[in-house]
Amino acid sequence: MESILSCPIVSVNARVWRFWSFVLKHDAMRYISIIPVTVMTFFMFLDLGHSWGDFQDVIIKGYFAVLYFNAVLRTLILVKDRKLYENFMEGISKFYFEISRIDDHQIQSLLRSYTARARMLSISNLALGAIISTCFTVYPMFTGVRGLPYGMYIPGVDGYQSPQYEIIYLVQVVLTFPGCCMYIPFTSFFVSTTLFGLVQIKTLQRQLQTFKDGIGSHGNKNANLQVIKLIQDHKRIIAYVSELNSLVTYICFVEFLSFGLMLCALLFLLNVIENHAQIVIVAAYIFMIISQIFAFYWHANEVREESMNIAVAAYSGPWVELDDSIKKKLLLIILRAQQPLEVSQQTSLRRPHNLYIQLLSSTSWAFSIPADHSRQCLSDDAGNVPIPPECILLVLHPAASGL
């Protein structure tokens, strides 16, 4: 456990998880956070059913319900598979300190750079989450009417009458902090572990280009041992990416589906609302979704591209004067590198960069629907007519309207 907490590339997220007892220890803190946030999420989904008819209200409440559902899902999977996560982080710690002992200034510079990047992203994500969560909780105070940070329906309780209103508001404010800690560190964990995968890949590339340096008089024999070690390192990287996939694949897949739907709804809503304060809030929600998805796909794409560059590094190395047996081993590395290492949602969803572009492209129609047409569908002059079926069809399939 101490080796994990002392490994700088994962220590920020590991310490947050350890504080809440999700991994590395087991005490009451785990239940203090998970159970109340899960109950609150359940009441948020109940409120969605009672809000149907007000399209704008449904979208905003749906956004928070999906956000908290993903936070609970992440945490429950993390707790369920905590041994797998602990072993994975233990392996990261072992390999991290192994790389830190390599006598190569370029590798050490690379390690420091990616470690600083991982820590900066982890800390900034927590800080940004705290700021945005604070905005979520204080926004209702400036609306001029009684409102809650997150819509909740508790059967038999009028949440807008005193003292229930004040109690529910306070509970939501308190639960926002553990909810933030349940959600954000997982994204930072994904980014940090992906960055460490890049460290291993770039270290292998560097060693493939310089493995003949300092091998002494027994050139071919020592070079053969070096190449065998590089093949083992390559196999270790392949296993690392496979293990990372097994830990995050299905969580990322659920978020891909849920956030894709919410992005469509929020972009559509942005085209309908006229209140400037609401436009700012909705734009902030959209930014959070896009930045969240971007964090996954950008770093996953880097792993893919750099894993293919292993072949280039092997070919550009000092292989010309080596024995044929060594050349064949290098050829094995080159051939394996033709199949990129990918962190993907499912085996059918490859090429993360292209998938990110396709997601944004496929949701852009929601913003391109003419505002006048959507307003006509959503309300009459009074602004409170329930949504007719043809408008549901318009949202789900814009081509049906002839646009």
From TrEMBL:
The keyword Nucleotidyltransferase does not apply. The chain crosses the membrane at residues 28-46, 58-79, 120-142, 167-199, 247-270, 276-298. It is a multi-pass membrane protein. It is found in: Cell membrane. Keywords: Cell membrane, Membrane, Olfaction, Receptor, Sensory transduction, Transducer, Transmembrane, Transmembrane helix. It comes from the Eukaryota. Pfam families: 7tm_6. InterPro entries: 7tm6_olfct_rcpt. Belongs to the insect chemoreceptor superfamily. Heteromeric odorant receptor channel (TC 1.A.69) family. This is Odorant receptor. It comes from Aedes albopictus (Asian tiger mosquito). The lineage of its organism: Eukaryota, Metazoa, Ecdysozoa, Arthropoda, Hexapoda.
